[in-house]
Amino acid sequence: MKMILREKQSTARNFGLVAIAVLITYAISAGLIRWAGGNPLAAFRLMLISPLQSTFGIGEVILSATPILFTGIAVALAFRAGYWNIGAEGQFLMGAVFATFIALNLGDLPGFVILPVIMVSAAIGGALWGVVPAILRVRYGIDEVVTTLLLNPCAALLVSGLLNGPWRNPETAFPETLRFPEQTDLPIMIPGTRIHIGFGIGLIVLVICWFVVARTATGLRLRAVGSNLKAAEASGVDVKRVLFGAALSSAAIAGLAGGLEVTGVQHQLTDGISPGFGYTGVIIATLAGLTFPGVLAVALLFADLTVGSFTASRVLQIPSSVGDVVQALLLVSVVALLVFRRYKIVLSREAKE
Amino acid sequence: MITGLFDVLGATLRVGTPLAFASSGELISERAGVLNLGIEGTMYAGAFVGIAMAASTGSLSMGLLAAIVAGLVAGLLMSFLTVTLGVNQHVVGLGMTLALIAICETANRIMFTEGSGQVRVDPWQPMYQDLGAPWSQYWLTYFAFLILIPTLWIVINKTGIGLKISAVGENPEAADAAGISVARVRYGAVTFGAALMAVGGAFITLAFIGSFTIDIIAGRGWVALALVIFARWRVGGMLVGILIFSFVYAAQNRLRLIPELSEVPYEILLALPYVAVIVGLVISGRKMRYPGAYLKPYRRT
């Protein structure tokens, strides 16, 4: 068996491949749902459609989409430059930590002063967590995959250390901070829902990233480095600067998401602040083909799935983790099948001819 | 004092056992040029499948066997994706981890949420209990440190198989030209490595703890990964790394009982292997040499 480059790509084939990936994902998760005693079609209807049938549901979907929209953008931006930042999880947590520090210590300032300070420090927190792997990559050529990844459990340990130590709630003695002062609550964007202005900021960040990458000279350099580093270097692009800039912007965006999540939703820092938003960001960016409009679409789809899987879990008594199964399987099967966009398999006997 | 030290040494080897299996698996895989980020999920699958099978058959050995099979399947899938299809190793590895954890978590809730809500087995007991610490250890611990790691050292450094694995990981073009099947060696290394990771996970449920919780692996896969890089892909260095980390971990558990030290956050010690890797990389800087074909799929052109 051998993989051979195809002469040409076709849109119809690409759609077909994605359809097969969806079918594989459906087949495996349907098996799990049936095993749990649920009807797969009913479960998928609840997971995908039921959240969109009420204003409340749509509000919850947009709320859940907010953090993963940011991490998706962060990962897509770095990946476009060929910088494999899989540390969005840790950067998100550090953003939350920095935001918490400001909220707990300067929380009595008026809202219009404190909120910008919180957001800027969250972005700085994320960027600081991303700076060491970026320096190692740019100065010493040390691969960033492992360094960014290993900083994720580190950040989680730091959060848990802070929550079990200095920030432990003195009233309940639980490993969680006190509720932040109310001036630090992000304003609600749409009255009657829990959607906070973080989603609006996410859309602005999305448009800025899209514009910079698609329409500016900086974006051209970034894409050049991402598609062929050697060629970009040969044509005079300052590769190190591009990589470093992409790495830090990516980390800052992930950090900002952490700050918005603590101030917009939780209003305190807890151990469960991120159920893996950074890793979900990697899935989203990849499934979006590293395009920014795609990131928005996939983030909304995943949020729909997350909200829906809780409904399905309640109604059909199936585990809500089925939603995570669908997301992860979709990633693996789409990534696997999209190889056939460019390659075809031939048996080795034919290949020799 | 001496008893205390013996206790800590005994605990060191117990803590180090899952890492010994998982790091060995990762080392073989990476030596052949494939970074397997499925490690955390593969350990998770080994832990879950092992105890699920042991609980339903009543046999711990059947549980271990099932864990090995789960590891082999995960490894074969990872090989197919990274070797045959040549997809991004880090994206698909992370995807494997997330998928395996989500599937096992779902299966756990389906199979074992009735009653106590937790699956339990009578775990393996340490051998030579009458000799006391540090000799009182599980058979898998003896196996890991007396058989697995020495064998791994010999195979990697002294045999043709080890040479082939390194050749394929360093320079697949040259290995191919020399008549080595790059695909076959990588399939073998990744699949066998994944089976070891699964055994590392199964040790936790079938010997160490005897039950399964959602957070059972708790980042041990990432620690194992960190130790392999800390050791620069050498078996000896890996063993030293495992022993240092496990000793610190075991000692901190004991030191926390001393009132003056109970204020030191133990999270700092848990973060040690990660920090050590990053600091090590900063110090070695440019001299750090990865396997030549790290992260690179190989296609004959």
Protein described:
The complex is a heterodimer of chains A (353) and B (301). Chain A is mainly α and 353 residues long. Chain A has a domain at 68-299. Chain A has helices spanning 11-35, 40-48, 55-80, 88-106, 111-140, 144-164, 197-215, 217-227, 229-234, 239-266, 277-287, 292-316, 322-342, 348-352, and strands at residues 2-5, 343-346. Chain A has a two-stranded antiparallel sheet. In chain A, α8 packs across α10. The radius of gyration of chain A is 22 Å and the shape is globular. In chain A, 51% of the residues are buried. Chain B has a domain at 18-121 and 132-218. Chain B has helices spanning 2-31, 39-57, 60-84, 89-112, 139-158, 160-170, 172-177, 182-209, 220-230, 235-255, 266-270, 272-284. Helix content of chain B is 71%, strand content 0%. Chain B contains twelve helices and no strands. In chain B, α2 packs across α9. The longest helix of chain B is centred in the first third of the chain and has 30 residues, at 2-31. Chain B is mainly α and 301 residues long. The mean pLDDT of chain B is 90. The interface between A and B is large, with 50 and 50 residues.
Short précis:
Chain A is built from 14 helices and two strands, in the order E-H-H-H-H-H-H-H-H-H-H-H-H-H-E-H. Chain A is mostly helical. The model of chain B has no long low-confidence stretch (mean pLDDT 90).
Keyword list:
heterodimer; A: 353 residues; mainly alpha; two-stranded antiparallel ribbon; 14 helices; 73% helix; B: 301 residues; 12 helices
Spell out the blueprint of helices and strands.
The complex is a heterodimer of chains A (353) and B (301).
Chain A (H helix, E strand, L loop, with lengths): L1 E4 L5 H25 L4 H9 L6 H26 L7 H19 L4 H30 L3 H21 L32 H19 L1 H11 L1 H6 L4 H28 L10 H11 L4 H25 L5 H21 E4 L1 H5 L1
Antiparallel strand pairs in A: 1-2
Helix pairs in contact in A: 1-13, 2-12, 3-7, 3-10, 3-11, 3-12, 4-5, 4-6, 4-10, 4-11, 5-6, 5-10, 7-8, 7-10, 8-10, 11-12, 11-13, 12-13
Chain B lengths: L1 H30 L7 H19 L2 H25 L4 H24 L26 H20 L1 H11 L1 H6 L4 H28 L10 H11 L4 H21 L10 H5 L1 H13 L17
Helix pairs in contact in B: 1-5, 1-8, 1-9, 1-10, 2-3, 2-4, 2-8, 2-9, 3-4, 3-8, 5-6, 6-8, 9-10, 9-12
